[in-house]
Amino acid sequence: QLQLVESGGGLVQPGGSLRLSCAASGFTLAYYAVGWFRQAPGKEREGVSCTNKDGVNTYYSNSVKGRFTISRNNAKNTVYLQMDNLKPEDTAVYYCAADLSKYCSGYEPMVLERYWGQGTQVTVSS
Length: 126
Known about the structure:
By secondary structure, the protein is mostly beta strands. It contains no helices and 13 strands.
C-alpha cells in the first residue's frame, strides 16, 4: 500500500525550529515531486514548498522563503522540511504530498497522480 507518514511536529516558541519528516513506503519516492502544504485554523490549505524528483530545484511560498528549507534523501525514501525562526502564523497542520508529475509548478507539485500524508501538527506559541 502506498503511504506517506509525516512526523516531527510539536509545540515550539516563536523563533524556534522544527524539522518535519515525510517517510514514504510502498513506492519509490525518487520518481515523485514532493511538496509541503499546511492548513491553519480557519484557513484553506496552502502550499509552502516543493522540490522536484531529484531535489535539484526547490521552491517556497513568500511567507516561508528564507526560513524554511525543503530537502530529500531518496535513498531513505524521505523528504524533510526544516523550519527555522518559526512564527505564530506558522501554526498549522503540515502535510506532505508526493506527485508522479515529478516537477513543481510554482511552489506546489504539478498534479498527475498525488498521494497525501495524514499531517502533523505544528504549534508556535509562547
